[in-house]
Design goal:
- The protein is of the alpha/beta class.
- The chain is globular and about 50 Å long.
- It is built from six helices and seven strands, in the order E-E-H-E-H-H-E-H-E-H-E-E-H.
- The chain has a seven-stranded mixed beta sheet with strand order 2-1-7-6-5-3-4, with helices on both faces.
- The chain has one domain: Rossmann fold, CATH 3.40.50.1220.
């Protein structure tokens, strides 16, 4: 095992420098830095979410921004998964800019100091999903360095070698398969749970969607407007 539960120290070696390689096939995953069948990684990840303290999902911009039909599908699947994890929380990662001088670790996770959010909320198992690969690997390594959190990466690309468990080529269908495996493991453990969404985050400011305008998006407003003459129906 090359990617261990932390704290590993101030600056642990990158997993790639320890010889960890990304899963070779779409039906393979990583578990503690070793390639395994995807289902093996899913079951270990499910057990961590069911048995470790304060399981939390960190959705990133690739889901939160709703930029494509697949993003909406994955977002729906993630909410279905969250319903099945007892006492799960969702803390978003809406963008990657440093939040200086202060971040509210209950409102969002700061990818530049993710360990602070983990430690503040006493999170011992988390999921990264919809986070761009370079920021995911950076954040996962920092979490491994300074916390005892078991990290799970659900990736739409090739996976993340810095996570304790990673699932690659994840779409809505694969996330729902993970959900089904989690339900199986929950029943094996004898955990009784009535599926329900995580409670609203009290730290987030209240928004009135009836009065929101284009100008409320600030510097992100340009994302809402297609180029002149362009009609966007789908994106890769």
């Amino acid at each position: 095992m090359k990617v261990l539960i932390g704290p590993e120290g101030y600056i642990p070696k990158a997993a790639a420098m320890e010889g960890v390689q990304l899963p070779s096939q779409p039906d393979k995953g990583l578990l503690y830095g070793e390639e395994v069948d995807e289902e093996v990684a899913m079951r270990e990840a499910a057990r961590a979410l069911l048995t470790r303290q304060n399981p939390t999902i960190f959705p990133g911009p690739k889901i939160l921004w709703g930029w494509s039909p697949s993003a909406f599908e994955q977002a729906e699947a993630i909410l279905e998964l969250a319903k099945e994890i007892p006492n799960c929380r969702i803390i978003p990662m809406p963008d990657y800019r440093p939040k200086y001088p202060k971040i509210d670790p209950e409102a969002e996770i700061n990818p530049n100091h993710p360990n602070l959010t983990i430690l503040h909320n006493k999170i011992e198992a988390c999921i990264f999903v919809g986070v761009h690969c370079h920021y995911a690997n950076l954040s996962l390594r920092m979490i491994r360095a300074g916390t005892n959190c078991f990290t799970i990466a659900i990736c739409g690309e090739l996976g993340h070698e810095e996570a304790h468990a990673t699932i690659r080529d994840a779409d809505g269908a694969k996330i729902r398969r993970f959900k089904d495996i989690l339900i199986e493991e929950r029943e094996k453990l004898g955990i009784k749970w009535e599926p329900k969404l995580p409670p609203p985050n009290p730290s987030l400011p209240k928004e009135n969607w009836e009065t929101i305008s284009f100008h409320d998006y600030g510097e992100y407003a340009f994302l809402l407007l297609p180029k002149k003459g362009e009609i966007i129906t789908d994106s890769e």
